[in-house]
Amino acid sequence: MLTGKQKRYLRSEAHHLNPIFQVGKGGVNDNMIEQIENALEARELMKISVLQNCEVDKNEVAEELSKGSKAEIVQIIGNTIVLYKESKENKKLNLPN
Question: Which residues belong to any copy of the CRM domain (predicted)?
């Protein structure tokens, strides 16, 4: 679990990022989760936008993505979800304690 301080740090790091994935009408599927896992391994921190035509609530989308990719939900703001997962190979971010 992330502490409040770590989440604050990650939010500031994510601020300038653009969403890489979009969740639309089809909702979340296995293929998307796999791609997000790979992207998280490469980047550690990413934004995903939930499109207006998505039939699933953005909080449920965040839960599904977080469970599927074993990532932490940093924040859900508007229709944007910020996910973090420590990379095994490409560690870039040093979280505060």
Answer: 1-96
Residue 14 DSSP SS3: helix
Nearest to 92 by CA among 2, 9, 1: 9
DSSP letters of 21-64?
EEE-TT---HHHHHHHHHHHHHHSEEEEEEPTT-SS-HHHHHHH
The residue type found at 60 is: E
Model pTM greater than 0.85?
yes
Cβ atoms within 10 Å, residue 63: 16
Number of domains in the chain: 1
pLDDT per residue of the chain (97 residues) written in tens, 0 to 9: 899 999 999 999 999 999 999 999 999 999 999 999 999 999 999 999 999 999 999 999 999 999 999 999 999 999 999 999 999 888 888 888 8
Kindly state whether residue 50 falls inside one of the protein's structural domains: yes
